From TrEMBL:
Domain Abortive infection protein-like C-terminal positions: 213-293
Name of the featured protein: Abortive infection C-terminus
Entry-linked Pfam families: Abi_C, AbiJ_NTD3
Domain AbiJ-NTD3: 4-166
UniProt lineage: Bacteria, Pseudomonadati, Bacteroidota, Bacteroidia, Bacteroidales
InterPro entries the UniProt entry points to: Abi-like_C, AbiJ-NTD3
Length: 304
């Protein structure tokens, strides 16, 4: 059963048409649709052609004689009734960097989509980048999860490797269903960031260090002093106090991981933490990792 209603889909189509925003961006319509569908294997609506690609090319590239909203009502694509996943895939493709280069229009379209999708509990959010341009994903809204996905995109600016990306994906997906995995992976992400920064600065981490010690050693080689504050010395004192608080948070994450995170055997009657705690930990860890990576400032070689 689809959760994104026909009303929402029709409203999105109508608003795009009214704003004269063409779904295919800078691509020809058959070329855009070929990014999602195998048009050569789909039937033609015109008896003169054997496939959908040639059919669409004739009517929308050569003659342009179909209605402007034809794609939303064409039963071959079934956008008014397709699965939520297929429908969101279509929407996301319309604002892909390869399809649309106008950043302002991308944001305008995203706002249109989210305004209507919100009524059904869905959203289009940025999850990564290509050549400095945002890449989006459509998903059902989960309280707190949009923020985590945004943090994922920011972390990947600094640690954009398959290993780290997999950890972030695992952590974000687990916050609502597998909290011990989310907590365990959050701890591993801090370790990865700290060890990688240490190696970059020529300092090896000691395998006997606990997480608090690892974070302290990392903090000691980073320059956290504010450079543009009105009173840098006073701001530096405050930042140092904050860093002490972060160290306390790090130790708390380590303790929770030992008690509730993945990596340790559990009794048969073990009860996971509620998801709200996992979201707090994952969100906090994401902010801490971004903070130390942004302070370090440059790409870092990853230590798995």
């Amino acid at each position: 059963m689809n959760l994104i209603t026909n009303i929402t889909r029709r409203n999105i189509a109508d608003e795009l048409i009214a704003a004269k925003i063409w779904y295919n961006g800078r691509l020809g319509e058959p070329d855009f649709l070929s990014r999602i569908y195998d048009l050569k294997k789909m039937p033609s609506r015109d008896y003169r052609y054997t496939n959908a690609y040639d059919d669409i090319y004739q009517h929308m590239v050569m003659n342009n004689d179909w209605e402007s909203d034809w794609v939303f009502t064409d039963t071959r694509f079934n956008l008014m009734h397709s699965s939520d996943e297929e429908y969101l895939k279509f929407l996301v493709e319309t604002i892909h960097p390869a399809v649309r280069g106008d950043d302002n229009q991308v944001l305008q379209i995203q706002e249109i989509y989210n305004k209507h999708l919100e009524n059904d509990g869905f959203e289009i959010i940025q999850v990564s980048e290509i050549s400095g341009k945002p890449v989006f994903e459509g998903r059902q809204k989960i309280i707190g999860k949009s923020h985590l996905v945004a943090k994922k995109a920011e972390i990947k600016k600094y640690l954009n490797t398959e290993y780290v990306n997999n950890k972030i994906n695992l952590m974000n997906e687990a916050v609502s269903s597998d909290t011990d995995l989310a907590i365990g992976t959050a701890k591993e992400l801090i370790e990865t960031a700290c060890k990688s920064i240490l190696k970059k600065h020529g300092k090896e981490s000691d395998p006997n260090w606990n997480l608090g010690k690892l974070f302290k050693e990392t903090s000691d080689i980073l320059d956290f002093k504010p450079k543009k504050a009105t009173n840098p010395d006073k701001a530096d004192t405050s930042v140092k106090q904050i860093l002490k608080g972060i160290t306390t948070l790090i130790n708390g994450v380590a303790e929770l991981r030992n008690a509730y995170g993945s990596g340790h055997g559990k009794e048969s009657d073990f009860q996971m933490l509620e998801s709200k705690y996992a979201k707090l930990i994952v969100g906090t860890v994401s902010e801490i990792v971004i903070f130390i990576l942004a302070t370090d400032g440059e790409d870092t070689e990853i230590i798995n």
